[in-house]
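step 4 of 6: structure.
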Amino acid sequence: MTKSNQFVVDALVHPFVGSSLSAHLGEPFRRWPLRAPNSRAAHKPPFNEYAIEALPTTTAQLLRARFRESNVGLAVLAPLTFGLAADPRFDVAVASALNSWLADTMLNEQDTSPKLVGSIRVAPRDVRAAVKEIEKWGSDPRFVQVAVTTEALAPYGQENYFPIWEAAASYGLPVLVCADNSRSVGPGLSPIGYPTHYLEIATLSPFAGTAHLVSLICSGVFERLESLVFVFGDGAFDVVAPLLWRSNKDWMALRSEVPWVMRPPSEYLTRHARFILSSSDGPLNATDFDRFVELTHFGSLLLYGSRYPRWDQFGVAAAEHWIPNRHHESIFRGVATDLYSRAT
Amino acid sequence: VTAQRIPILTATEVQAGRGTVVHVDGIGSIGVFSVRGRYYALKNACPHQGGPLCQGEVTGTSIAHFTPGEPPSLEWVRDGEVIRCPWHRWEFDILTGHALTKPDRWRVAKYDVALEQAQPEVPVQSVETYPVVEKDGVLVLIITR
C-alpha cells in the first residue's frame, strides 16, 4: 500500500492481447500467423521477456485485482504491437485491431475500479491510416493518448509524420512513444549497428526514444503544436538531461540552421515532454537520485508507469522505496492526472 | 558627463563586408563595421570565451515563418548586420552587440562612433604605423565616462 494511502496512477501497462486479436483483424491479416510480442526481435534476454504471471493480463479482472493490491486507482493501457512488419499494412491492421479489442474488452466493463483507460495505437509509417485511426477513437473518453512504437524507419520530427501529431493535438491527446522490442525491419539497434549482447541493447535502448525527442524539437514540431505533449515510455530522462545540455550549447552556434527552434532545446521539455520513470533510470541509491533530479530539473516531468508485465517492470512498492518522498505526489499522481485529465 | 573623442580610423580604411580591427589605447582591440553607410564599433572579444569576435564572418541570419498546413520556412535576413565569432560561431547583432540566441543574457560591448571632418592637426591613430591625413573624414570613438 502507498504510504500516503492515496491512489497511484500506473501510466504504462501492457495488456496481452493473446489469440483474441485475430477476431479483430481484417482480411487478409487474420489469416497471417500471429507472433508473441518480441518473437521477431534480433536480441532477446536470456530468459522470458515477460513476467510469469503475464498471461493474466489478458483479462481486465485479473489486471484490476493486481492493481488493487498496489493501490493503483488509474491505469493507462498500451498494448504492444509487433514492431515494424515488412509490409506496413500489417502494422496498420494490428494497430486498428488492438484499438477495437481494447474498446470491446478491457475498456468495456461494468467494473470501473480501478479505472482503466487506453491508448490509440497507430502505425506511423502510414500517415493517412494513422490520422483516420485517431479520428475514429479521438472523441472516445476511454482513450487518453495516441501510442506509437519507438521503433521507426525515420525520426518522428520529420515532416511526413506531422499530420499524425497534428491530429493527436486536435483531440487534446498526448502521444506515447514506447518500444515494442519487436520488429521485422528497421535500422540497426545502436548508433553503430547491431550489438552482440542483450545487455548492450538494454544499456543503449534509451537513445532511440531520445532520437525522436531531439528530432521533434529540432524540426519545430513543438513550435507548431503548442499544446502537444509526448510521453517517453522507455524512460531515459537521465540520458535526455545531459544530451539536451549539449544541445543547448550547440544551439548557440547552430540556431540559424533551425530558426524554428526559437528557444534553447531543453526549454521545450516543460511544456512538451514527459518521461515514464523506469527502474533503470538514474543513480542507484535514493539520495543520489534526489540530487540528480534536482540537478536536471526533471522533477515535474516524471511519472510512474510499471511497464507490467515486462521483465524489468517497476512495482509500486519498489518505486515508492526508491523515489524520495518529496517526489511521490508528483510522480505517482500529479503529473499523470494533469496529463491524462480526460481520465480524472 | 564628459565625452572623450578618440580618432581611430579614416573612413576609407573601414573595409566593406568585414570588421576592421584597430587597437585603441586605453580601450583595447575593437572592430569597426560599415553597414549601409553607418558605422558601428564592437569590442573585439566575444563575451562567450574571449575569441576575436570582430575577425569573424560578417553575415546575415535566418528567421522562421510558420504557416498553417506547411512546414516552417526559412528566410535569410539582415545580411551584413551579423557578426559570427570565429571561435564558436555565435551570432551577434553588429547594430546592438546583442547575441541573436539569448539577447538578454549575452552581449558584447558596443561603442559609439561618429564620422567627423578631418582636422589636419589631429593625429589619426591608424592601423598603419604612419599618420594619415584624411580628406573624407575621420571615425571618432566616443567614450562617455
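step 5 of 6: annotate
 - Strands of chain A lie at 8-13, 72-77, 115-121, 143-149, 175-178, 230-232, 273-277, 302-304.
 - Chain A has a mean pLDDT of 90.
step 6 of 6: archive
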